Amino acid sequence: VNPDLRTLLERKADEMRLDASIPDRVVRRARRRRVSTALVAGAVAAGLVAGVVVSARLLLEETRMAPRVRPANPTARFYPFIYPATREELETTQDQVSRGSVPMWTEAEGVAHLFAVNVLGWDPEDVAVEVAGDTVVVRNPALPQAARFEGGLGTTLHLVRVPGSDPPIYAVVAAVAEVIEAEPVGPDAELGADGTLSFRGRVAFVPEEAMVALSVEDAQAGRAEALSAVRPDGTFLVQVEAPAELGPDTRVSIALLDGARRTLALTSSRISTPVAGGGQSRTSEATQALPAPVAETREAILAAAAAGDWDALRDLIPGDGFTYSFGGQTDPVAYWQRLEEEGTDVRGILRALFSVTAVRDRGMWVWPAPAGKQSSEWTEEDEAILGELVAEGVLTPQERRDFLRSGFYYGWRAGIERDGTWRFFVAGD
Amino acid sequence: MGELYAAHAPDAARLAYLLTGDRTLAEDLVQEAFVRMFGRFRDLRDPGAFRAYLRTTLVNLTRSHFRRRRVERAYLERERHRMEPHVESAEPDEMWEILQRLRPRQRAAIVLRYYEDLSEAQTADVLRCPVGTVKSLVSRGLAQLRAEMTRGEVT
Hints:
The complex is a heterodimer. By secondary structure, chain A is α+β, with helices and mostly antiparallel strands. Chain A has helices at 2-15, 24-47, 52-63, 87-98, 108-118, 144-147, 292-307, 310-316, 332-341, 346-353, 380-391, 397-406; strands at residues 128-132, 135-139, 154-161, 170-177, 180-185, 196-203, 211-218, 222-229, 235-241, 251-257, 263-270, 359-361, 364-367, 413-417, 422-426. The relative contact order of chain A is 0.13. Residues 38-76, 186-193 and 273-288 of chain A have low confidence and may be disordered. The longest helix of chain B is centred in the last third of the chain and has 24 residues, at 131-154.
C-alpha cells in the first residue's frame, strides 16, 4: 500500500490548483479580523467584568423583546441571552406558550436546570438548583471533584423574565463561576497576537488534572475552543484562535474541567454589554444636570466615602443586583476593605470617580464619561478626565495607554440608574 | 502578505485538498488560514518556520471544520459529486475514495506522514497528540485501506 499511497497523494495533490495571487477578499477579511479582535479584547475586558445584572436589565430595555419576537428584521436587534442559545429557540418556546401549551421548565428554576443539563452537560438526576430571585446557583454534587469542594462548586446563573411573557418565560443572560477569576490578556505582542484571545486567571479550587476551557462562539463566525492545564497554584493562561469577524453577539465562556473533562463550573456571557460597548451602538451624552435621584445617590456615596463610613456605603448597595467584582466575592464592603488593606484606596477612587463628568448610557449614568464610548470617540474633555484620573492615582499612565490601544475604557467605573439605584462599581483588571 | 501567499498558498492548498478531498473547501481553508495568520507575520522571527506554522494552522482548521460541520460537509460532498462527477480523474480512484472515508484525524496523520514526509514526532506535534497516538492512527488507517482494497478486489 505505502508506495502506491505516496504516488496517489502526489498525483491527487497535483490536481489541486490555486491562483498564487492573494484574493482581495482575503486581505479585507484579514484587516477586519485584526480590528474585530482588538474590539473583542477590549469588549471582553470590560464586558466580562461589567455587571451582568445591570446588563440584563438594560439589554432588555434595548431589545424590548416581546412574547412573540417578530422575525421581520432579525439582525437588527441584539440577542442578549446565552440560554436559550438562539432567538429561534426562544421563539419556539414563545410559540408554544402563545398557543396555550405550557412547556416544561420555562420558569427560572427549570431553565437553570435545563442549562445545567444542556450546556454544562450534567446528568439531570445530579443537578442541584438553589433559587434566589432571578439568580440561581446550580451545583453538581455527584461529580467527585465538585463534592470535595465545601458546599459544592457553584455556577451562578443570572436570569431575566422575557418582558411581556405570561406565563413567564425565563432566559439566562450570564453564568458566573464562583471559583473562576479571569481577565483578558492582550492583544499584545507577547501573549495576545492578533487573532488570539487570551485569558489569565486563577481558580479558587484546583481539582486533580484540572483544565480550563476557553470557548468563543458566534452564530456567523463559528466556534473555537482551547484547553489549558491549571497550574498547582490555581493560576492558568488559556488562549484560543478566535473565529474571524466576531461581533457583539459572540459568546465567550471559560469552564473549569475535571480530569475526565467534565464541566465543574462555568463563566459565560455575550461580549457586548451596555457598559462594555463591544460594538453596540449607544447614545452617550455628557451630563450637565443629573436627575435628582441620581444626584442624591452620588452625593450619598461621596459623603460616605469621604467619611470612611462603610456602613453608609453598604446601605447604598441594592439587594437586587450590584456588581463590584468578577467572581469569588460575596460581600462588596468586605472586598473593598480587603483591597484597602492591600493598598488600594477604594474610597479615594470613589471620590475621584464621582467628581468627574458622567455620561448617560441608555438608562444608566456612568462615571467616568470615557467609559461610555469607544476610544475613537473620546473628546478633549474625555482625555482631560482620564488625565485627571491618572493624577488622582485611579489609573496609571500605562493603563490609560492600554485603554486607548484596546479601544475601550475598562478601568474603575461606576453606574447609577435613573431611579437612583447604585448598580456597579468595578474595575476591569 | 501577497508574497507569502504566492509562495505558500498553492502548496497549502494541495495539502488542504488531501486533508479534505474537496477543492472548494481546501481553497476556503487556505484563505482562512492566511486571514488568521495575518498580523503575526511581522512577529515571525524565523521566516523558515512559516510553512510549519501554516501547516499546523491548516490541520487545526480542518479538524475544527470536520468537527463543526460534519452534516453540512456531507451535504456539500453529495452535491459536489452530483454536480461534477469525478472531474479530477477519468476513473474512480478506489484508494482515494477509501482515504476519504477514514476519520479526519486518521487521514491527517497519513497525509502528514506520507505526503508531507513528516516524522512521527513532527506529526504528533502538528496533531497535538502523543507519538504513540500517531503510530496508532497511521497503522489503523493503513490497515483499513488494505482491508477495504482487498475486499474490493475480492468482490
